[in-house]
Amino acid sequence: MKKSRPFFRLQRSLFLQEKGMLAFYFLCMVIIGIVLPLFSIGFETLLVMAAMFTVMFLKPMLSDMAAGERERKILESLLSTPVNGKYILRGKIRFSIVFAATFYLMTLLCAVVTSFICGRMPDMALWQWVLLLPAALLEFIAVSTSGIYISAVSADSRTAGSRISRIAYPLGLLGVIQVTSLFVVQLLPSLVISTAVVLLYMAVIIYYRIKREHMKQSGYFESTKSRRAAQSPGRQRIRKVTPKSQFLIVLCHELKYLWKLKLLLVNFAILCVCPAIVLYLFKHYTGVINLYYPVLLTVLMLPRAPVNLIAYSIGGEKVYKTGESLISAPLSLRPMFLAKCAVPVAISAILLIVSSLLTLGAANIMGTYFETGAHYTYTSDQWVLLFPTGIASTIAMVFITGVLSVRLKTPRQGLYASLLIGIAFLFPPLIIAFWAPDKLLWSLIYFGLLLLGDVLCVIGISNKITRPQIMGKL
Asked: How many whole angstroms separate alpha carbon 249 and alpha carbon 246?
């Protein structure tokens, strides 16, 4: 414990230095714990959202703690000290657990206070709290323990993030099942389900702790898995390209590189199912099938998932030292930038279509079996929010992230800064869905404003960004 304490303090000081990330986490805490309760969202749903967002925020943090430091040549300097590498990882695990527990508990405290002020105190018995909080803490410990180990044996943060998702999201789903059982079934069944979930969390913790303890000191620098994965991105992306258009040349490179990220594509596929799951949970909690909740989740979450692509596609060029050679190529900046932005926009459009169809199918299946043949379809304003508005907001977020990734030091900083700015995109759909008198009219107005902003972004990028400016940021 004492040997890992300096690295815990080091990780804490590095975290506190990034003011933008602190502001981002604070805003998310305010939105989940204060803003959402004002929209009469049930406390059970807030519990699920708080746990899921905590896991979502842990994933990029864990992938950056070891793999990201390897990319930035920081991990080698730490491992060059006479301290064993396992103590370094222990300090990082301790910090990630403290962060997750603090964010989760502060969010719940805000939600309880807001519900009390609004006259809607959470109807939870003592036994529900006793089963909830220890299971949530073990969930964060399991995610942190497995995530740090995976990050330590991954070549880069993008690979680490994709591999961590395979562990973090299923563990988060177990947490959703456990929370749902607290409000759906009685004490004894809830106790059985919570015990099973806790045992699974403990099995994950023990398994990855054993794997971490058996790592050799040299394995912390670069494992066998890392050497196989750490091929030069520039070498991977060099292919014979036949298109004559500069836009198509860069687009083909980006698509070929995206196709190699199998785990990332699987993560996108999993996200498509999330709105349908939320619709089912709301049906359990409220007894009503309301398509506005999954529509809002689809509009707010899915278009922003591929923003990671543009952050690492542009910002990653600086990390891998391939940006200079790319800028030196006889390619114009405008088609190069637009081609890199086109890939996440296309992915977002596909996710929107697939997810909206899955949600609509789930609503009609539930209507058939639970409401004696009730049929559901999206209203006109919901269609506008889903597709024109969703795609336009995606384009705006992709442009913002691309520009910030060029200007900031690392892809993660550009990603968090864009997410912080992206909080502004959260409120218009919420206001339109719950308070606008004419939802269709205001949805069209919001789409028009987004479209105008996208056009201005394209013009500004074409006229103001120069090669010397980009070379100065590399």
From this structure: 5
